[in-house]
C-alpha cells in the first residue's frame, strides 16, 4: 500500500467486521502496530496487510516461512530456498516443502516479472508467475522463454484463478470492460511495475490502443491485491485490477475478466533435481490440492501439470 495510507480504528473495525475493543486489545498486545495523530489512533495500511496475511498463515497453515528481501542480497544457508510471489497458496506450499523435505523455505512477496528477473540473476529458487502476453494470449511461457533464454527450466501449474476488476459495492459506474477505464470520471488504482496484474492491464491497454496517459489514476501504485481492494473500499479510487479473493476479504465487488494460469518455474540443474521431485510430489498430492480447494476461488484441475520444460 502507499506509505501515506492509514486507517482509523473505526475504519479497521468496519473493514474486518470486529469490535473496536478487539482492535484496541490487539494494539495493546503489540499484535497490530498503531500510531497516534493527536488524540486519534491510526493503523498503517501496510501493517494491516501484514496482520491479515499473518493470521491467514497462522490459522490455515500453523506455519509461517521467514520473509526475505530480494533487494538486500541477504545471506542464506545451503538448504534455504526462496519462494517468490504473493498468493497465500505459496505459504501453504512452503509448509508442505518444510514438512516433506530437508529444505527450509524463505518467502519473498515480490511481483511476477521482478521475481523472474531475480531468478535469472540467481536470487530465487521457485518463482510464481501470472504474466499475460497480449500477442499470443498465453500466460508465462512467452516471458520465461525470453528472460531465461540459455537456461534449462521446468514450468509447473500451481492453479488457475479469476482476474478482473475491483469495484465499489453495486458497481455504480457500471465498469465491465477494459475500454471503460478510458473515461475521465473513472479513477484507477494501479499495481506496481513488474507485477502480473500491472502487466495484464498494460497489455490490455496496448491491445485496445489506450494510452496510459489517458487513464485517470494510472500513476497511483499499490504493492499487492489486498492494498488495491482496500483503496477501492475506502473510496479513494473506483477500479483496480486483481484476483477475486482480495475483493471478498475487503467486501467489495469483483468483475471477472479472465482466467489466469498461475505457474511455478524452477531452474533445472544437479542442485535442483531433488527440489523439482519434491515439488512435483506435493503438487500432485490429493492432500495439497484438497487444502487449496478448501480456500475457494481456485481451480486445481491442472495443478502439477508440466506446462513447459527445456531439455
TrEMBL record:
Short name of one Pfam family: PBP_like
Gene Ontology terms for molecular function: DNA binding
UniProt domain Helix-turn-helix: residue ranges: 7-55
Domain named PBP: residues: 100-283
PANTHER family tied to this protein: BLL2305 PROTEIN
NCBIfam families cross-referenced by the UniProt entry: excise
Protein name in UniProt: Helix-turn-helix domain-containing protein
Lineage: Bacteria, Bacillati, Bacillota, Bacilli, Bacillales
